[in-house]
Design brief:
Elements (H helix, E strand, L loop, with lengths): L3 E2 L9 E20 L2 E10 L2 E11 L2 E8 L4 E12 L2 E13 L10 E9 L3 E9 L7 E11 L5 H8 L15 E9 L5 E23 L3
Parallel strand pairs: 1-7
Antiparallel strand pairs: 2-3, 2-12, 3-4, 4-5, 5-6, 6-7, 8-9, 9-10, 10-11, 11-12
Length: 217
């Protein structure tokens, strides 16, 4: 899969333009399945910096991409233009605007409780319970994940891609260096859910987001 990126910022005469640089080296797709309903999550990330992600929505009715900066709690919005040639899929990102991430319903005080089920030289199997706060009275979500050992910890990529509404909560993390390949568990509403990593590709590109500063008169 290849991509082409074009940022088209609005330039005004009384503004000075700087830029925030984001680098990406991974493209992944997770599937989340409840009953017979499957949701796809196509995400670009930086394996060495899990503070930001691009979520790509290439649905035929709503093509867009959002770059979420979880450190600055800001999202950058893009119009997505898609084209295909033979076996290649091309994305063009056209910058629209930026806005603050709304975390009102994302359980910002939630915590993880982790139990290692199996740990060998290649794979990990881990029981994870998500609690609303540090009182840990009742798990809001529970799942068993299977992950492969990795040079860096890519659990935050799984959290962002799959664990709604906890995707923005960086407190929910593991100490193990793994990439989650599959998981089975129970959602907030008590339904059974399955997660699977169905696509993984090494990429290399960067995006520059315009930062506007008003000039002094």
């Amino acid at each position: 899969m290849k991509i082409f990126l074009y940022l088209i910022p609005l330039l005004l005469m009384n503004l000075t333009v700087q830029a925030q640089k984001y680098e990406f080296d991974l493209l992944t797709k997770y599937n989340s399945k409840i009953h017979n309903n499957v949701r796809e999550s196509l995400v670009y990330s930086n394996s060495k910096n899990m503070n930001y992600f691009i979520y790509v929505n290439n649905d035929s009715l709503n093509k867009q991409a959002k770059l979420y900066d979880l450190k600055k709690m800001t999202s950058h919005n893009f119009r997505l233009i898609e084209s295909k040639t033979e076996n290649n899929l091309f994305f063009e990102f056209v910058y629209i605007n930026s806005e603050t991430i709304n975390v009102e319903n994302s359980y910002p005080s939630s915590e993880l409780e982790v139990k290692i089920i199996n740990n060998d030289s290649i794979n990990n199997e881990i029981q994870v319970d998500v609690f609303k706060n540090n009182k840990r009275k009742k798990a809001e979500m529970s799942f068993v994940l299977k992950g492969k050992k990795n040079d860096t910890n890519l659990f935050p990529l799984f959290r962002f891609s799959c664990l709604h509404p906890f995707e923005f909560n960086q407190n929910l993390n593991l100490s193990e260096k793994i990439i989650v390949e599959s998981a089975k568990g129970i959602t907030l509403s008590g339904e059974s859910i399955e997660y699977n990593l169905v696509y993984f590709e090494v990429v290399k590109f960067e995006i520059l987001i315009p930062i506007y500063k008003k000039n002094n008169d």
